[in-house]
Amino acid sequence: MVSLERREIISMLALSITFAAIPFLLNFNNYYIFIATTITLLAIIVVAWNLIGGLAGQLDLAAGAYLGLGAYVAGTLLIRFELTPWLGMILGGLTASSIALLIGYPTFRFGIREVWYALSSAALVPILKTLFLLWEDVGGPAERYLPYYSWSFYHLRFSTYIVYFYILGALLITTVLINVLIKKAKLGYYLIAIRDNEEAAEMLGINARKYKLYALTLYSFMVGTVGGLYACITGYIHPSHFDFWLSIQVAVLGIVGGLGSVAGPLIITFILGGLAEYLRTTLGSYVEGLHLIFYGAILMLIILYKPEGVSSWIKTIFQKLKTAIS
Amino acid sequence: MENTILSVRNIVKRFGGLIALNNVSFDAEEGEILGIIGPNGAGKTTLFNVITGFYKPDNGKIVFRDNDITGLPPHKVSHLGIARTFQVSKPFPSLTVEEAIKVGAFKSANQERLVREIVDETLSLIGLNYIRSRHCSECNLVQTKLIELGRALATRPSLLLLDEIAAGLNPFEINELIELLRKINKEKKITICVIEHVMKFIMNVSDRIIVLHHGEKISEGRPTEVSKDPRVVQAYLGVVR
Does residue A94 fall inside a structural domain? Predict the structure, then answer.
């Protein structure tokens, strides 16, 4: 069994306290908390993506598909049967991972990897989007609204974002914890070995296909679960929840944060997520799209100077702090 | 034979019109070091790839310790007790030396303590304890080859296939490697099949040698016998007029 080191327990506690404190720091401003909520949601997906993209090295671009599936499952069950989204989220996660397995099995069976895996996983987003657009019974082109409640834990509907923020915060910490534990366990080593050299890994007794499927199932379950919550936050379900831009964003943040690292992608998501919103509200009002140019430029600078991701920066900063203290 | 650990029978492997292996049969005896030589393109590495499941043979049968392993995928072959190294190194650049060995050790132990024991034991056997926390991406050729050997050993195999492990090593390093392989063979009771071009190495280390040429086995025997076999001389040097 793997256990956490003291350093990691302290980091986890620090992360929890920071999250608990964020609404206070934001002065309970509903708009700021909304931004924090969406960034936290993105961060969960980025950290979950680390399993398949970072550790297993498969450039997965289907995050938008799994999120949409989770949203539709949890949303539809709430609208039609008044099933609590707490259960709906889990069912959404299970649906997402079933679909992922269904596609992942033949994909890995026939040795589709690298850029080809990226393309085939990316295709899932528009396919599902179109499917739900045409499937009038649950989807269709019009939004379907979730029942309105200003404060109901059963329906997971609130008129303030703060509750969503705390639920997502708890989910994020869980996701980070799972990631850290996996990285230290046999599964983590096996996934890195597969990413570094699949043939060598196979020869050491590793069933690469099986372990890649483990990573894919876990990741899609996490994204699907968050998708259920996403439906509750937005208050409706619509085919636009199958968002390909999300897939891209998740992969970009995962790569820029540092493949295989947990802290890197987490930190970069909050910095760039906050920055993107800041640029949008300040620059976006002068010239439309100006903020995206700045955002893109910042990404390019990071990739140019730290192609291995910001996680290496974090490492050097920590090492310098250590030597400064001792 | 009673002590046969690996029995290869009538293996045929074609790549399109090219016949890489043509009816190759041989046995490896428990506890021996078997050398496999032959000119470039003779089919030596293909033979290893067929045995370890990277290629499926078009014909023939491979039996390892009473298990028919013909066409089994590499990870299953590994679980039965065969390990190998690769002609072109296949390192794990993002892992440290210690971690790379650990990946192999997970197969043979499921407790953290036992895994660590195997890693420590393997590191001291291959003599890489002093760089255990260095990244594999920062290791030189000799170290990379030793890590691959260590990784394979950590899976606790009974048969070890080494594909040109001495290539690119200097004479001093080759002598050390011979010592190491003898130690692995005698102390760990691991049968070794070794493909090699470095003659000094193969003649020194092998108990028996088989010679492949154009995908066929042309000779088999003790190192001194094989080196005098006219067919072998002809394969390497051409026809003597």
Answer: yes
